[in-house]
């Protein structure tokens, strides 16, 4: 009888240990920002690359010919702010959304009302999420690096969040079933689980 209880306890410990092992690699409180850069992964038809984003990618690629992951992150965040500047998505304070502009853009981009609502609600959610991330230690470090290039982290935080949300909640038929998108989605799921159980 006692033996059996020990066995159960052992199995339980083993499970906890195994789970800890499978969820821990490169997951931390900023795993949604750091581990994979999803900003330029357009995996859902509803959230496609805008011409402004492509233009800014070219412009900033010249300014930051990145070699390290850190430089690439700086480049991505400046590209995001550049793009949000050009679409007038971001307010003059550089840390709020111009919702009228966002709505107009989505309405001209998407045919389906339900899609507009889904994406607009995602922007609302991601505005709040981005503001909540600004005080994070990792984000403050990022902000200092961005400042040297004249960029602010808010637009990139919003864009990253929208990209993540659209990868996780894309209507099934509109999701791009490529290896890269599948992998990114699996990673994001792990990251979200981690963030949920961490606190
Ligand atoms: C976006 O616009 C603000 C001011 O309107 C400017 O200070 C900032 O440098 C611009 N960001 C980029 C990445 O061009």
How does this model look, in words?
With 199 residues, this protein is an all-alpha fold. The chain has a single domain (29-198), classed as Recoverin, domain 1 (Orthogonal Bundle), CATH 1.10.238. It has 9 helices and no strands. It is globular. The relative contact order is 0.17. Residues 21-25 have low confidence and may be disordered. Residues 1-18 form the signal peptide. Residues 53-185 form the OBP47-like domain. Its main location: secreted.
Entry summary:
Helices cover about 70% and strands about 0% of the residues.
Structural topology:
Elements: H1 2-23, H2 31-34, H3 51-63, H4 69-86, H5 99-109, H6 113-133, H7 137-147, H8 154-168, H9 179-198
Bound molecules: 2-acetamido-2-deoxy-beta-D-glucopyranose.
Subcellular location: Secreted
Keywords: Secreted, Signal
Signal peptide: 1-18
- Approximately how much helix is present in the residues? 55-70%
Low-confidence segments:
21-25
SSE series: HHHHHHHHH
Just name the CATH architecture. Orthogonal Bundle
Tally of separate helices: 9
Strand content: under 5%
Number of domains: 1
CATH class: Mainly Alpha
Bound molecules: 2-acetamido-2-deoxy-beta-D-glucopyranose
Gyration radius from CA atoms, angstroms:
20 Å
Overall pLDDT level = 88
Distance between the termini: 37 Å
Q: Which class of secondary structure composition applies to the elements?
A: mainly alpha
Largest sheet: none
Shape: globular
The CATH topology is what? Recoverin, domain 1
Give descriptors for this structure.
199 residues; mainly alpha; Recoverin, domain 1; 9 helices; globular; binds 2-acetamido-2-deoxy-beta-D-glucopyranose
């Amino acid at each position: 009888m006692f033996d059996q209880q020990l066995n159960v306890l052992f199995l339980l410990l083993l499970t906890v240990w195994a789970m800890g092992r499978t969820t821990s690699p490169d997951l931390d409180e900023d795993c949604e920002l750091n581990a994979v850069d999803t900003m330029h992964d357009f995996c859902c038809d509803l959230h496609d690359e805008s011409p402004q984003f492509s233009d800014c990618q070219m412009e900033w690629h010249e300014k930051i010919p990145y070699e390290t992951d850190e430089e690439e992150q700086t480049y991505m965040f400046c590209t995001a702010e550049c793009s949000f500047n050009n679409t007038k998505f971001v307010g003059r304070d550089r840390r709020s959304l111009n919702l009228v502009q966002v709505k107009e853009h989505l309405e001209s981009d998407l045919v389906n009302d339900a899609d507009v609502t889904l994406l607009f609600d995602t922007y609302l959610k991601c505005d709040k999420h981005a503001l909540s991330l600004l005080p994070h230690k990792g984000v403050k470090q990022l902000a200092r690096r961005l400042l040297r290039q004249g960029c602010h982290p808010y637009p990139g935080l919003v864009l990253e969040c929208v990209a993540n949300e659209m990868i996780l909640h894309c209507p099934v038929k509109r999701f791009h079933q490529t290896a890269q998108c599948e992998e990114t989605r699996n990673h994001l799921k792990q990251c979200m689980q981690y963030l949920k159980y961490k606190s």
